[in-house]
Write a structure and sequence with these properties.
It holds the Pfam family Peripla_BP_6. Keywords: Amino-acid transport, Signal, Transport. The structure is a single chain. This protein is α/β, with parallel strands linked by helices. About 40% of the residues lie in helices and about 20% in strands. Strand 6, helix 6 and strand 7 form a beta-alpha-beta unit. It starts with a helix and ends in a 13-residue tail after the last strand.
C-alpha cells in the first residue's frame, strides 16, 4: 500500500511541477545597444539598469500574469545600424518579441523599419520596439508605426524646454551649435535654430556644424572655432565619448560660458568634468534624482548603487519602460500577443517613481512627461554620478512637456 501511495504522490508532484513550469514563463527582452567600442560604457550602464529594473520592479514582486518573469538578453550592436539588424534577427530567431534600444537614432530608424517589415510578413511572431533614448523627432512623425513606442522626450520637445531657459538669459546673445553628423545631430541643430529664432530673434547663431560620430579624437579645431566666434553659450546633442571629448576640449581651450547639453552626465563624463564643469554644464533630461522626489526613488537608487557600485542611475526612463511594459502585459492578459500589449500601452497613464505622470500619446506613441533642466554641481547633491561627488541638480521642471506638440504621424494599426 505504501508503494502504491508513493507512486501516486510522485505522479501528483510531477503533475504539479509540470503545471507550475507551464504556467510560469520567461518573457525575454532583447537589449540591442553598444557593449563594445567608443560608446560601450553608455550601453553597459544601460544594460545594468535594465537588468536591475526587471529583477527589482517585476520579478521580485511576483512577475506578471501567472508569475511570468522578465529576462534581459544583451546583444552588442557596436552602435552600427547594420550590426543591429543582424542582432535583431538573432533575437527574433530566439523567439524574443520585445526589443529595447536607445543609443543612436540612426540605429533606431534601422530597427523600426525592419520590425515593421517583419511584422507585416510574419503576423504570428510580431515584435514590439520600446525605444528608451533615440530622440530623432521623425521616429514619431513621418517614420512612425504602431510597433514603435518612445519613452524619452524627442529632440524637439527637449529643445523647446532648453531654449525656454536660454531665452531668459539676457547675457546670452551669441550661440554656437555643434553636434554629431547623423539624424539626431541634425534634428538638434534644426530645433535650436528654429526655437531660438522664435523666442530670442536677437540671438545670433555664430556657428552651426556637425562632425563625424564617434570618430573625432581631437576636438581642438572645433573648440578654437567656438572660442574665436565669441559665443556666449554652446548647444550640443553629443553623447558618450563625443560629449566628453568635445566638452573637455572646449573648456581647455578657454571657453567659459554655459554648455547646454542632452547627455552630459554619467558614464565617466561627470567625473571627467568634475570642478571644471561646475555650474556650466546644463542638461535637459527627465526623472528627478537630486533631490529625489520620494522615499521610493531614494531607496531604488541606493539599492542599485549597492549592486553596481561603479554604476549610475542616469537613465531613469528605463524603469518607466519596465513598469509600463509589465502593466500593459497584465492589462492585455497576454505577453505573446504583442498587438494586445501595444494597444494597452496606447493612451496609458502611469505615475513615475521619479515624479509626475507619464502619458503614452496614442497618435504617435510619444511618451509625454515632465522635462527637467539640471546643472552639474557638487552642491545640494543627494546622489552623485561616477562616484565623483558631482551630479545633476534640478533647476527647472517643465510639466508634461510637449503635450500639445504637433505630430505628422499617420499610423496604420494592425
Amino acid at each position: 500500500m505504501r508503494k502504491t501511495t508513493g507512486i501516486g504522490l510522485s505522479a501528483v508532484m510531477a503533475t504539479l511541477l509540470a503545471a507550475g513550469t507551464a504556467s510560469a514563463d520567461t518573457i525575454k527582452i532583447a537589449f540591442i545597444d553598444p557593449l563594445s567600442g567608443p560608446f560601450a560604457s553608455t550601453g553597459t550602464n544601460g544594460l545594468h539598469q535594465y537588468e536591475f529594473a526587471a529583477e527589482t520592479l517585476v520579478n521580485e514582486k511576483g512577475g506578471v500574469l501567472d508569475g511570468d518573469t522578465f529576462e534581459i538578453v544583451a546583444f552588442d550592436n557596436k552602435t552600427s545600424p547594420k550590426e543591429s539588424l543582424v542582432q535583431l534577427q538573432v533575437a527574433i530567431d530566439q523567439g524574443i518579441r520585445y526589443v529595447v534600444q536607445g543609443n543612436s537614432s540612426g540605429v533606431a530608424h534601422a530597427l523600426t523599419d525592419a520590425i515593421e517589415k517583419h511584422n507585416r510578413r510574419n503576423p504570428d511572431d510580431r515584435v514590439l520596439f520600446l525605444n528608451y533614448s533615440a530622440v530623432d523627432p521623425a521616429l514619431t512623425n513621418e517614420n512612425c508605426n504602431f510597433w514603435h513606442f518612445r519613452f524619452d522626450a524627442n529632440a524637439d520637445i527637449k529643445m523647446d524646454a532648453l531654449t525656454d531657459v536660454i531665452a531668459e538669459q539676457d547675457d546670452i546673445t551669441k550661440v554656437y551649435v555643434i553636434g554629431q553628423d547623423y539624424s539626431f545631430g541634425k534634428a538638434v541643430s534644426s530645433a535650436a535654430t528654429s526655437f531660438l529664432g522664435e523666442k530670442r530673434p536677437d540671438i545670433e547663431i555664430v556657428g552651426n556644424e556637425l562632425h563625424p560620430i564617434g570618430k573625432v579624437k581631437d576636438f581642438t579645431p572645433y573648440s578654437r572655432k567656438i572660442v574665436s566666434s565669441g559665443a556666449d553659450a554652446v548647444i550640443t546633442g553629443n553623447w558618450g565619448a563625443d560629449m566628453l571629448n568635445l566638452g573637455k576640449s572646449v573648456i581647455d581651450n578657454g571657453f567659459d560660458g554655459p554648455i547646454y547639453t542632452y547627455y552630459a552626465a554619467a558614464d565617466g563624463i561627470t567625473a571627467a568634468f568634475g570642478e571644471s564643469g561646475k555650474d556650466r554644464l546644463r542638461l535637459v533630461t527627465e526623472g528627478q534624482t537630486n533631490p529625489p522626489p520620494n522615499d521610493r526613488a531614494a531607496a531604488y537608487i541606493e539599492a542599485f548603487k549597492a549592486k553596481y557600485p561603479d554604476g549610475n542611475m542616469s537613465q531613469t526612463r528605463i524603469t518607466n519602460v519596465i513598469e509600463m511594459l509589465a502593466k500593459a502585459i497584465n492589462e492585455a492578459g497576454t505577453a505573446t500577443d504583442v498587438v494586445a500589449v501595444g494597444e494597452a500601452l496606447e493612451g496609458m497613464e502611469h505615475e513615475s517613481m521619479w515624479g509626475g505622470t507619464l502619458y503614452m500619446r496614442p497618435e504617435d506613441h510619444q511618451l509625454i512627461q515632465d522635462v527637467l533642466i539640471t546643472v552639474h554641481t557638487n552642491e545640494g547633491i543627494d546622489y552623485d554620478l561616477d562616484n565623483s561627488d558631482y551630479g545633476q541638480r534640478m533647476e527647472h521642471r517643465i510639466e508634461m512637456a510637449g503635450m500639445d506638440s504637433p505630430t505628422t504621424c499617420k499610423m496604420r494599426r494592425p
